[in-house]
Amino acid sequence: MSQFFHVHPENPQARLINQAVEIINNGGVVVYPTDSGYAIGCHLGDKKALDRIIQIRQLSKEHDFTLVCKDLSELSVYARVENTAFRLLKNNTPGAYTFIFKGTKEVPKRLLNPKKKTIGIRVPDHNITQALVEALDEPLMSTSLILPGSEFSETDPDEIRNYLEKQVDLIIHGGYLAEAPTTVIDFSEGDAEIVRVGHGDPSPFE
């Protein structure tokens, strides 16, 4: 049975955020709100938790996972980033973007795209997400919470609870969200390639 925290979307309660981080560090799978719908995440080094997420979402081996970061300070640790790309990210984060880069050796191989050796990077513009990764003090392994048979990220935490109460360790209720997928920008081959236009303004990357 999962825990269910009501966290204030503007002023996240530090006590609940710290409890959430403890659950993540102990191998938990957590559902949490972002600026693009609800996401599901775990500790980036935890294979068992990742396997649970793969099973919940019924993901293929080619799925692109994302590291959710509090800012760009850890970017070069996990991604191969050229100066031009870094400047573009600096000017457009936090925001509803997913950036794809070649991963470094610091990224566990199981998180990389098996063919392209890429990893997604996110710096969401959401207070709960920011508080979570700041307290965690490292990126959170994450993917959008798109349940099998659906095309979009979940937006209603009560419905998520009905589906996943027995499959995850924590659901953070941060309000009812609008459906707003990220804009995906691929930098893995050098120049910016817009893969998907979503909520983030693509014009700075064109």
What does this structure look like?
With 206 residues, the protein is of the alpha/beta class. The protein has one domain (3-205): DHBP synthase (Alpha-Beta Complex), CATH 3.90.870. The protein has helices at 14-25, 47-57, 75-78, 83-92, 127-136, 157-164; strands at residues 3-6, 30-34, 37-43, 66-68, 97-102, 118-122, 140-144, 170-173, 183-186, 193-196. Strands 1-8-2-3-7-4-6-5-9-10 form a 10-stranded mixed β-sheet, sandwiched between helices. The N and C termini lie far apart (46 Å). The model has no long low-confidence stretch (mean pLDDT 96).
Task: Name some characteristics of this structure.
DHBP synthase
Q: Overall pLDDT, averaged? A: 96
Structural class: alpha/beta
The percent of residues in helical segments reads 25-40%
Shape: globular
Low-confidence stretches: none
Sheet with most strands: 10 strands, mixed
Q: What fraction of the residues are assigned to beta strands by DSSP?
A: 15-25%
CATH superfamily: DHBP synthase
Question: Can you lay out the helices and strands and say which pair or pack?
Answer:
Elements: E1 3-6, H1 14-25, E2 30-34, E3 37-43, H2 47-57, E4 66-68, H3 75-78, H4 83-92, E5 97-102, E6 118-122, H5 127-136, E7 140-144, H6 157-164, E8 170-173, E9 183-186, E10 193-196
Parallel strand pairs: 1-8, 2-8, 4-6, 5-9
Antiparallel strand pairs: 2-3, 3-7, 4-7, 5-6, 9-10
Helix pairs in contact: 1-5
